[in-house]
Amino acid sequence: MISFRQTGFILSIIFVLLLELGCGDQYRPVANPIIGPGGQPQSTHYAYVVNYNPSGPGSTYKIDVSGDTISQAQTVGLGSVAESLFLNSTLFVANRDGDSVMSYTVYLSGPPITTTNLLPGSHPVALASTENDAMFVLNQGPNSACPNTGSISTISTTTLTVTNTVCVGVHPTQMIQLPNGGEIYVTNQGDNSVSIFVPSSQTVTATITTAQGLGLNPTALASSLDGSFIFVVTAGDGTNPGALDILPRYSGTIAASVPLGVAPSFEILDPNLNRLYVANTGSNTVNVFDASKVNVANNPAIPLLGTANVGTAPVSITPLPNGTQFYVADSVSNDVTVVSAGSFLPLKTIPLAANANPVWIASEPTSTKVYVANPGTGTISIIQTVDNTIATNIAAPPQVAGCVSYCALQQPVMIGTN
Question: How much is the pLDDT for 27?
């Protein structure tokens, strides 16, 4: 698998840091899983990094997990801000400032890149798919098809062309697709709503608003493993607190709401332990919920297993697949907090560079490495989990091609693994 909330002093700091990436609009990477359905078996594991370039075309890195080496580097488009790996073989990259999506086959050496042009003004900010024949693009800006709102464009993965564009709400920021080609849910921060898009009919069938129980300022999305429940993190507005709103599939209304910390901004479902992690950016905590026991008739509707104290302004979380620990990127304290998945107590704080401003963190399938995107220093920090130390820092490409001395670096903003 960014949001752009405007509540809370700490969250305002996060926005300023993210705007330093050169974005014209508010942006933070979406927590969409990068691994699509099915796909080729992987004998080697990789991390895929998207680098944003404020001075020109961005880039992607393919990093070999075992060797901590770059095995593939590609130049992509203007404003590269998001990625999604389709069927473990094709990487799609959203170029927000170029109104395009680029794609290429990751297991080829020096593969050709295909550019799929979107409608002018689209400004794509997210990608998602759990299907076998389509990739979906979330467009934040208005275009000729949707002059007053954002939109979703459907790209055929056979022809790599846009087959349709459908309007959603104002200033959309995140989307997820339910398992096995299910509905797509979109947070619209401009009009405080969640759109439900059905790919098979290419229609928005419902819009969830405060009238249907949605809290203020929806900022993050996740679903239960079977897709029965959609978890919407709402950040509140400084007066109204943040909450986890639970939307049963097909219901069209929020059935339950659970309190969170201050200015929650990020959530991720751990499919191995079936837990939901929520980062409270304003209160420097992470809530851990048992997603296997959701019952909207209960109070609370989802059991809270514990709350972990972490660094300042947590913005991204990754649980290890082996279930032992989870790692939190703290954007203002410039560090990573390692937390026990059993006791929820911090085990270690791993310092990054003084101005790292980490915005994304990801773990790979063998649980041996954790990857941190540091746009402030233009680096990817690789943490070895055996002793929770930084094994190496990989520099992003220079912003100006061919630069060899005192070069400003591109800014890593999103990492996925397989």
Answer: 38
User: Which of the residue ranges 9-18, 69-78, 171-180 would you say has the lowest mean pLDDT?
Assistant: 9-18
pLDDT in tens, 234-278: 999 877 789 999 999 999 999 999 999 999 999 999 999 999 999
Give the 3-state secondary structure of the chain: CCCCCCCCHHHHHHHHHHHCCCCCCCCCCCCCCCECCCCCCCCCCEEEEEEECCCCEEEEEEEECCCCEEEEEEEEEECEEEEEEECCCEEEEEEHHHCEEEEEECCCCCCCCEEEECCCCCCEEEEECCCCCEEEEEECCCCCCCCCCCEEEEEECCCCCEEEEEECCCCEEEEEECCCCCCEEEEECCCCEEEEEECCCCEEEEEECHHHCCCCCEEEEEECCCCCEEEEEECCCCCCCCEEEEEECCCCCCCEEEECCCCEEEEEEECCCCEEEEEECCCCEEEEEECCCCCCCCCCCCCEEEEEECCCCEEEEEECCCCCEEEEEECCCCEEEEEECCCCCEEEEEECCCCCCCCEEEECCCCCEEEEEECCCCEEEEEECCCCEEEEEEECCECCCCCCCCCCECEEEEEEEC
